[in-house]
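Sequence in, structure out.
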Amino acid sequence: MFKGTPEIIAERREEIIDACEKLYQSMNFKDLTFKEIGNETSFSRPTIYNYFKTKEEIVLAMIEREFERWNADLEGISNSGQTYSKEQLAELIADTLEKRGQMLKLICTNSHEMEANSDEELLGSFRKGLRKTVQIFEAIIQKNFPEMSHEEIMGIVYVFFPFMVGISPYTMITDKQKKDMKEDEVDLFKHTIHELTYNCLIRLLK
């Protein structure tokens, strides 16, 4: 890691993450390169290596930031001062995930590659952030359904978080996939993030 002031490190890391986030809207993980990312920053491509050793580390930082944004939405539900029915809570959580399409796309990235090609300190930071997300999610369920046991709540967590990894492929269909489906005469079922999330949560909460 580059040994500059904390302010410089944070500022440049954010600029690199911003650049990668912009590119990821139209590119896949395998197509991302340090050259492409460097072209979107105000400094030279070699400078990126002072802050991230691999593109996996940059994407990991992107995922962490996306989870932080989702945390803010979940905390809004948790701290609302209201309690909700199962239908209302499923609707609210589905609303928060509908805004996190980038996060859902990112978490489809091969986690084994992320771990193999990322610094342990960065992985530790990511895991800590993910634990916070799970804790907020647990707290929301516990607050609204106090009759549920800890085991029941964790059962929901153990299904819902892996389920999120599969949302993106069912809702963000590429032009190539559309072409292949048309050629194979496969009906194109268009699902939304909100629809899949809501239906999953309703089943888990009941």
